[in-house]
Design goal:
single chain; mainly alpha; 2 strands; 2% strand; globular; F0_ATP_A_sf
């Protein structure tokens, strides 16, 4: 029973073929394609308005050089939100519960921000490793600590997204199992537990959106340090 709770995080197979590729590609099919007409329907208008608001808010602290990342970060935000939301549906698979996928997003994008900083302003990029006014005896220790903290950033990005989504899915499954077990024996307690399950599901919807936003926001902050 304990192991079956983690079966939902295994990549599903069909005739020996992993279906994670379909789960990753499916979100892009669900979005309507903007037309060239002046008047669009309400869905496309709301979609464009939300993406524009998010992009403006994300690019606000960045200078002009960082605005080149607007399309990439906005697309990543929409992609992660859609995958996380679809993963809350019954009998679905959430690719972002896989640490390998999240690290595949985090490491290249973090490395790109570091390389941009080293190319455009190497002095300022290396200056982050040593705070100003550091006593001479502490310089080697602080350089080591700051270097370790720099390389931990992509790991923190991937683990944060994986851990929050995995914990939420496990908690939903545990409470749902408790509802089915308690329903024949104690219906009143089962109804109260089902109410808690409904509230938890609403919380997980918020977590799915917030974690996608935090992932992209932290990438924009790393970019801000290097442009």
């Amino acid at each position: 029973m304990a192991m079956s709770f983690f079966d939902q995080f295994a990549s599903p197979l069909y005739m020996g073929i992993p279906l994670i590729a379909i789960a990753i590609a499916l979100p892009w099919v669900l979005y309507p394609t903007p037309s060239t007409r002046w008047i669009n329907n309400r869905l496309i208008t709301i979609q464009g308005w939300l993406i524009n608001r998010f992009t403006n808010q994300l690019m606000l602290p960045l200078n002009v050089g960082g605005h080149k990342w607007a399309l990439l970060l906005a697309s990543l935000m929409v992609f992660l939100i859609t995958i996380n939301m679809l993963g809350l549906l019954p009998y679905t698979f959430t690719p972002t519960t896989q640490l390998s996928l999240n690290m595949g997003f985090a490491v290249p994008l973090w490395l790109a921000t570091v390389l941009i900083g080293m190319r455009n302003q190497p002095t300022a990029a290396l200056g982050h490793l040593l705070p100003e006014g550091t006593p001479i005896p502490l310089i080697p220790v602080l350089i080591i600590i700051e270097t370790i903290s720099l390389f931990i950033r992509p790991l923190a990005l991937g683990v944060r997204l994986t851990a929050n989504l995995t914990a939420g899915h496990l908690l939903i499954q545990l409470i749902a199992t408790a509802v089915f077990v308690l329903l024949p024996m104690m219906p009143t307690v089962a109804i109260l537990t089902a109410t808690v399950l409904f509230l938890l599901t609403l919380l997980e919807v918020a977590v799915a959106m917030i974690q996608a936003y935090v992932f992209v926001l932290l990438l924009s902050l790393y970019l801000q340090e290097n442009v």
